[in-house]
Design a protein that fits this description.
By secondary structure, the protein is mainly α. Helix content is 51%, strand content 0%. It is built from five helices and no strands. α2 crosses α3 (39-47). The longest helix has 14 residues, at 10-23.
Length: 91
């Protein structure tokens, strides 16, 4: 019997959405413009009340220069270039 991949708790990726936005000094309205949605809709994403589509997750990962896995909490936060972010560095 195949094992299902574990989906991270919504609280993990919801927190990452907010943290990334704040690290880039952006408002919810700024990110909503990038995703072509309303600020209210984006706010619901950050609160975990709405799920982001794969397309929107890809947009955010590309915008923030992070991997999808790190964006949704499957791996430690790492940039696409392989450098760890937030003070974590490879040895």
């Amino acid at each position: 019997m195949a094992r299902e991949a574990r989906c991270p708790q919504p609280a993990i990726w919801v927190r990452k959405l907010r943290d990334l936005r704040e690290q880039h000094n952006l408002s919810q309205a700024d990110v909503a413009k990038i995703l072509h949605c309303s600020q209210a809709t984006y706010g619901m994403y950050e609160l975990g009340r709405r799920r982001l589509s794969v397309e929107r997750l890809v947009q955010l990962a590309q915008f923030y220069h992070v991997t999808l896995d790190s964006l949704v909490g499957l791996t430690p936060e790492q940039s696409k270039q392989g450098d760890f972010v937030e003070g974590h560095h490879e040895e």
